[in-house]
Amino acid sequence: MKEISKPIRKVDDQDKIEGKVRYIADIEFEGMLFAKTLRSGRPRARIRSIEIPELPDGYFIVDANDIPGKNRVKMVINDHPFFAEGEVNYIGEPILLVVGPKKETIFEIIEKIKIRYEDLNPILTMEDAERKGKTFIDYEFTKGDPDKAFEMAEKVIEDEFRTGYQEHIYLEPQGVVGICEDGKVTIYGAMQCPYYVKGAVMEGLGWDEDRVRVVQTTTGGAFGGKEEYPSIIAGQVVVAALKTGRPVQLIFDRDEDIMVTTKRHPSVTEYRVGLDGNGRITVLDINIKLDGGAYGGLSGVVLQRALFTATGVYNIPNLRVRGSVLKTNKVPSGAFRGFGAPQAIFGIEMLMHHLAEKLGRVPLDFKMDYALKTKDTTSTGGIIRGEVKLPEIIKEVEKMSDYRRKHKESRKFRGIGLSLFLHGCGFTGKGEESIKGKVTLRKKGKDVEILTSSVEMGQGATTTLRKIVSKSLSIPITQVLYDNPDTERVPDSGPTVASRTVMIVGGLLDSAAKELRERWDEGDEIEVSKIYKHPGYIKWDDKLLKGDAYPEYSWGANVVEVEIDPITYEIEVLGIWAVYDIGVAIDERIIQGQIEGGITQGLGYATIEVMDSVDGELVQRTLTDYKIPTSMDFPKIESKLVRNPYKYGPYGAKCAGELPFVGAAPALASAVENALSVPINRIPVTPEYLLEVLSG
Amino acid sequence: MRIEFTLNSESVSIDTEPQRRLLDILREDFRLISVKEGCGEGECGACIILLDGKAVNSCLIPAGRIKGSEVITLEGYRETERFRILMESFEDAGAVQCGFCTPGIIMTVESLLRENSNPTEEEIKKALSGNLCRCTGYSMIVDGVVRAVKKVKNDGKSI
Ligand code: FES
Ligand code: FES
Fold this sequence. Notes:
- The complex is a heterodimer of chains A (696) and B (159).
- Chain A has a seven-stranded mixed beta sheet. A five-stranded mixed beta sheet of chain A has the order 7-15-14-13-8, sandwiched between helices. Chain A has a four-stranded mixed beta sheet with strand order 16-23-24-27, sandwiched between helices.
- Chain A is α+β, with helices and mostly antiparallel strands and 696 residues long.
- The radius of gyration of chain A is 25 Å and the shape is globular.
- Chain A has 19 helices and 27 strands.
- The model of chain A has no long low-confidence stretch (mean pLDDT 97).
- Chain B is an alpha+beta fold.
- Chain B folds into two domains: 2-75, Beta-grasp domain (Ubiquitin-like (UB roll), Roll), CATH 3.10.20; 81-154, DNA polymerase, domain 1, CATH 1.10.150.120.
- Helix content of chain B is 39%, strand content 14%.
- Chain B has helices at 22-29, 74-77, 81-93, 102-115, 121-127, 139-154, and strands at residues 2-7, 10-15, 48-51, 54-57, 70-72.
- A five-stranded mixed beta sheet of chain B has the order 2-1-5-3-4.
- In chain B, helix 3 (81-93) packs across helix 6 (139-154).
- The longest helix of chain B is centred in the C-terminal third of the chain and has 16 residues, at 139-154.
- Chain B starts with a strand and ends in a 5-residue tail after the last helix.
- The model of chain B has no long low-confidence stretch (mean pLDDT 96).
- Classes of the chains: A alpha+beta (696), B alpha+beta (159).
- At the A-B interface, helix 1 and helix 16 of A face helix 3, helix 4 and helix 6 of B.
- The complex binds FE2/S2 (inorganic) cluster (FES) (2 copies).
């Protein structure tokens, strides 16, 4: 079974290296028109009037009046309009499209359009939203008896942590093309979730499912940024295509993409910790607040993951966990690799680090006193069923990094930090059960085609899924076919999110392949489909937030060593070590890519990726201002996997895509803390912030 | 304005505004889709091509500047032996994920190798510092280049 992990050359590498792959901007359609969005310049206002100049022949305005169905984008909270309707709620909110054959002329028209606003009082900070009680959603759950435990506590300590925005900067900006033909629409574009786009367009048009087709084009990175956002622009180009009778292309330029697309939620998390006479934690009160921006979208689900991850890898007997998504007049926040978990893990890891320092303990030893073990109960009363291999993970990472010695010998301006973390695999709560993902395998002669709506976005899904099917059918991988999903051909296997593609969709493909193998001789053309069924052991109560929030968990530990310039406070990362339990890797090299890419993004999040909003407007609006890591920023990452097969995953695989992201920031921040002996309560840890902390 | 230049070893001539971006000329007039637009402001390197042998961001080059010059895009370069070696090394190193940064990276590496056939890891990292990649974390790309350099050395070919 081990040999499946052995790396193979990825099936889509050659076309990409030769530059032959067509991303959405590389595809031309006959008679295609271009579109550009006119956006709100105000954080909150009523639109008094829109003055449109006389349009040259062949140019069109497309706005809310052109939407035949519901002018709301289907997400989870369906509140974002395709086009503003008399009122705008954030700077950058789409108001209308100008559509036509020539980009320069479109720009000229946009320049000439005059909007008169009547400004309304905006909410521009989380604090203001909290004061005014503006939230999209609030949750709370408890474990044990937190009130009593606080009463009994010898000592109560409070702490607070903040995290900032993060922008995805997938290298390929957002883009879609809408086409209307014979009473049907087709959307091509960069996306993670073809069926989300389909559902949103159906509602926007008020059309049946057989009149809406969605085709994913090779996607140049996504990281969650192409989970819900493409639904908005797909709806827009489709009505534009309907109005003009021509294919309409909408591709963002980078500045626009940075300014208006969803970002990682900024967060503020407050902790109250109760300790007994021996300095042991008996109770935790955690309150996570996320800045949702102007519309709800997926934020409620992001909050759920943050809350269910709030205690990290620790087992604390008494808990109160609560949180809210605050409503502000800013760009909407949304899905981003980790989906709420990075904020939660940063907070709990830093809290544990602070407590260890206060109590004079080695952070690693202190953390291990509380580490979850097999059969322990989770914060929601679920059960940790799989074997917890944290001790083994820690042993490895200690050995690789020489953590203990370096921690003991740490001196001013040089420090080492460590994070322990986990990630719940697949959808939160009832998610998988309600989506009921479906896959199909189609045998044609000696070839077998995979039909799934899971997309390739760089994470290696085409290779990984083919590898699973080829192995389970014992046929060469060249006989296993996979094409970019087209909703007319593939069933709804659910979206490509939540690190679910290998464990859930791959698992379905594995069982379909096994059935097909049995039936191989029945004929030349055979189709086998499988629909997801939750393993029987999983119990979840959506109302009480009780039970197994996730079917299984992946685990990890990161160590980061830093040196800080005593004059500039620039942080130099000297070493990064990482060990994970992701069950079994379907391809070790693809996993290495996920690890290194995820950690690098996580270290960017922790250090240089600064994004502020002032008066509802983002300060960093270009790649010149918003810096992401380059080849020069971090040293080589040393990583290792600890094998721990999961019974219900294909070949033992669990989840891997998001996990490497979540541990990086707290490892770095605790290393900085170790180097400077001052508490770090915020990321990104910039030199300016360090100066502030050091000067008290 | 009429502009004549060499594009992937062929002499070409176009009539265009002198301020037009080379990136648009290559993509729109010549349909050379390997040249990507990731930012349009000289920050990401997705649009890198070789201009007289040097890696440049084609989004920053106005048409007027290419008069009489030699432009090579991946479409031209991929016909070479060195490209084939690089491609295999990139595959074996896992240097490619979403692939959007890859053409620009390949062109940057070619310009590096033209100047320095035996670069160190540090030199490779430095050469790649203008190519953003959001997927890989860079080490596997650097490894791809290291492998290619080694392979050429072992084959006894000069690169
Ligand atoms: S598109 Fe030219 S550098 Fe980004
Ligand atoms: S592989 Fe996606 S940006 Fe480099």
